[in-house]
Amino acid sequence: MSIIVSIIRHSPSATTGIRPMPAGTEVDAHWHDENQIVYAGRGVLSVTTSAGSWVVPASRAIWIPAHTVHEHRAYGETDLHLVGLPVRDNPLRLTQPAVINVDPLLRELVIAYTTDPGGPAAERRRLRAVLLDRLRHSALQPVHVPAAKDPRLVAVCAVLRENPADDRTLAQLGSANGVSDRTLIRLCGAELGMSFPQWRTQLRLHHALRLLAEDIPVTTVAHQCGWASASAFIDVFRRAFGHTPGTHRTHR
C-alpha cells in the first residue's frame, strides 16, 4: 500500500526518546536524514512505506534507513521507543526497511537508551556502543507485507486487505478482477518477491497482531483472519513470532 499524501514532512534529525501513543494514534508520513530504530515496548505498531507495511509486536523492532518516507499507527496502548542514529551507524548495513529480532538484552538497551536521552554524554556514548554491538547480532525477520505496483495485482491485494478472511483462490480473485491467475502468479514473484499464499499468510498475521492488540479473543482473531481453526492459527503464529497468540499479551 503506497503512501499518498499532499505534504510529506522532513525532520532532519531522527528522534531519540519515548512517545506514548494511545490506541489508533497515527504519525503522518515523514522522513529523516538519519537512520532510526522504531520499537514498541508495549502495544503493537505498524509502519508503512512505499515498499509495503510492517506490523511488529514487542519481540521485534523496525530498522528505518535515512531518507525513507514512513508513517506509523498504534494498535492498542503503545509505548513507542525511538533511537536515532547517524548514517555512519548502520551495524546491519541495511539500505531498506527491515524487521529485526529484539532479544531481552537488546530490549533493555533500547529502553534504557530512550528513557533518558538527556543523560550524561559519556554514559550515553557507552550505552550506544553496546546497543550497536548487540544490533550486529540481531537476526532479520521476514515479517513484511510487500506492496504491489501493477494495478491488476494492486486490485487483488486490496480485496484481501479489506477482508483477510476472504478464502477465494488466486484464480477466483483474478477472475473477479479481469486478470488471469498466470499473470497474477508472475506479478507476485516479480513485485512481492513471494508466492501468493505466502503473501496472504503475512497479511493475515499482520491483521492478527492488530486484533490481538485490541484484546480480541484468539478464536475470534483466527476466524476473522481466515484460519479454519484456532489451532491452525496458533501453529502459524508460533512459527512466525516464537510464541503463541495466547501469550502474546504478556510480551506487550
Summarize the structure.
The chain is α+β, with helices and mostly antiparallel strands.
Descriptive notes:
This protein has 252 residues and is of the alpha+beta class. The chain has helices spanning 104-115, 121-135, 151-162, 170-176, 181-192, 196-213, 218-224, 230-241, 245-248, and strands spanning 9-10, 17-21, 26-31, 35-49, 52-56, 60-64, 70-85, 98-101, 140-141, 145-146. 39% of the residues lie in helices and 25% in strands. α4 packs across α5. The longest helix is centred in the C-terminal third of the chain and has 18 residues, at 196-213. Strands 1, 2, 3, 4, 5, 6, 7, 8, 9 and 10 form a 10-stranded mixed β-sheet that branches. The protein contains 9 helices and 10 strands.
Poorly predicted runs: 1-5
Q: What order do the helices and strands follow?
A: EEEEEEEEHHEEHHHHHHH
Query: What is the number of beta strands?
Result: 10
- The oligomeric status of these chains comes to single chain
Helix content: 25-40%
How much strand content do the residues show? 15-25%
Question: Largest beta sheet, briefly?
Answer: 10 strands, mixed
What best-fitting shape do the alpha-carbon axes yield?
globular
Alpha carbon gyration radius: 19 Å
Q: What is the tally of helical segments?
A: 9
Give the CA-CA distance, first to last residue: 26 Å
Q: Which structural category do the helix and sheet elements fall into? A: alpha+beta
Overall mean pLDDT stands at 88
